[in-house]
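Input (structure):
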């Protein structure tokens, strides 16, 4: 059986989700609990996690595990805590931030914040997770990237860069992990209705709710494969537009988003 056919279930062990207190992460954790998973939920604010744990319903449960993904020591401590009590078989490294940025207002400080959370933060969590899973020759880790990582999108230069980096990292790791019994997936959502995307001042086609996104992610984690991308119509459009020559791509995306009028 290929490592990409490996599907984890609640009977195999527990899950860990970062960025768990809001947006896609929160919806995913609640959906997983309803499907029977025990989920160690990580975000910076303990109070939000504890409130989620009380509100969650289903055969599973939430175990609050507060921590900041930009702190590698905290990520190691959380993974060690999970391993001391349970078998970690699924990790969804989902923490991320989005701040739109046009060229006229480009800020290295803001870009660094996105890099620190979206890219470095994922590697901080990925390091101890891979060590545990490779040692066990078992497990499934998923990185939440974005369709914004396929090619650059207007107003999202640092954000697209972080998500492109995650896609490339997942692809590179997949070729190594084939020999280690560990499955890796990359999650590429389209536009999802969250507090972060609420700041966008352009049309967001095929916009999904966080609940719809969570359903798509959990369905993808439960099937063989490498990429979990949705909504499929939007993904196909982006892939087709993405193969255009550069000038044609820039023109098509600006026109589609109305960016030239913003």
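Output (sequence):
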């Amino acid at each position: 059986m290929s490592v990409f056919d490996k599907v984890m279930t609640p009977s195999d062990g527990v899950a860990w989700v970062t960025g768990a207190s809001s947006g896609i992460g929160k919806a995913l954790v609640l959906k997983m609990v309803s499907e029977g998973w025990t989920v160690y939920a990580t975000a910076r604010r303990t109070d939000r996690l504890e409130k989620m744990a009380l509100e969650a319903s289903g055969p599973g449960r939430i175990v609050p595990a507060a921590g900041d993904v930009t702190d590698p020591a905290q990520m190691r401590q959380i993974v060690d805590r999970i391993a001391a009590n349970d078998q970690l078989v699924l990790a969804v490294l989902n923490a991320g931030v989005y701040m739109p940025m046009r060229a006229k207002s480009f800020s290295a400080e803001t870009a660094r914040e996105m890099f620190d959370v979206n890219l470095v933060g994922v590697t901080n969590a990925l390091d101890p997770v891979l060590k545990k899973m490779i040692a066990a020759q078992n497990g499934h880790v998923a990185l939440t990237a974005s369709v914004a990582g396929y090619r650059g999108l207007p107003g999202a230069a640092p954000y697209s860069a972080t998500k492109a980096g995650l896609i490339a990292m997942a692809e590179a790791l997949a070729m190594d992990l084939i020999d280690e019994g560990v499955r890796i997936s990359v999650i590429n959502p389209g536009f999802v209705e969250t507090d972060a995307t609420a700041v966008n001042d352009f049309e967001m086609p095929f916009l999904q709710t966080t609940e719809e996104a969570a359903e798509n992610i959990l369905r993808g984690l439960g099937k063989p494969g490498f990429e979990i991308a949705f909504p499929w119509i939007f993904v196909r459009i982006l892939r087709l537009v993405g193969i255009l020559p550069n000038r044609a791509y820039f023109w098509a995306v600006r026109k589609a988003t109305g960016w030239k009028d913003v």
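Notes: Residues 7 and 188 are 19 Å apart (CA to CA). The first helix runs from residue 23 to 34.
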